[in-house]
Amino acid sequence: MKHKLIVKNFGPIKDISMEVSDFIVLTGAQSSGKSTIAKLIFFFRGIKDAVYSIHDDERLVQYRTDDGIKMLLSIYFSLLFDDALSEDDTQLEYHYSNDCFAKVTTH
What we know:
Layout: E1 3-10, E2 13-20, H1 34-56, H2 66-81, E3 91-97, E4 100-105
Antiparallel strand pairs: 1-2, 1-3, 3-4
Helix pairs in contact: 1-2
């Protein structure tokens, strides 16, 4: 299975579902969400490396819990997207395989 990105109500993007491969060409009007999609792919593909960094860096030992990792990933997400999560009912999903995915939602 190729990776898959699902985005609903996030920044300029109202509803998309797309396969993610190693090479993607994004085209569209200015402010249509191309950069948002690229940054989302960057974020979701980097989660594994971020979690490994938390476990390898002795300065981050206090964050080696589920809640600590979620907090650091939340900060990292906020740095990439500023206030983009202000929308109600945002849903972001990145599927790595049929049984492995990451999800960000607001209610």
